[in-house]
Amino acid sequence: MDGHNQSPLYIQRQQQEEKEATNMSANSQDMRFKAGEMKGQADVKTDQMANKASNAAQSCKDSMQNAGEQVKNKAQGAADTVKDAVGMNKK
């Protein structure tokens, strides 16, 4: 190496560049870690929302089935009432 490359300013600049490169690498790793954490949290939240939607759909289905049974029973009762009124209901 020539004398210029060994000057204190050159060595200080090299050390500073190495320190900055190390910091950038650490920052990059930290950012990747945080991104992974955020993705994990987003996945959990997605699962929670999907479960809520599924539960709501199941509740709606159950309510509709119940309502359908009630309508069917009322219609059957009305039909029986009409048959009784006209004497068509066999007992």
Structure description:
InterPro entries: LEA1/2/D7/KIN2 (IPR039624). By secondary structure, this protein is mainly α. It is 87% helix and 0% strand. The protein has one helix and no strands. It is rod-shaped.
Shape: rod-shaped
**Proportion of helical residues:** over 70%
Measured between the Cα atoms of the first and last residue, the distance is: 116 Å
Strands, total number: 0
What is the gyration radius calculated from CA atoms? Answer: 38 Å
Sheet with most strands: none
Oligomer: single chain
Helices and strands: which structural class? mainly alpha
In DSSP terms (H or I, runs of 4 or more residues), the helix count works out at 1
Strand content: under 5%
Series of secondary-structure elements, N-terminal to C-terminal: H
> What's the mean pLDDT score?
90
Which residues sit in consecutive blocks of at least 5 with pLDDT less than 50? none
What's the topology here?
Blueprint: H1 8-86
What labels would you give this structure?
91 residues; mainly alpha; 1 helix; rod-shaped
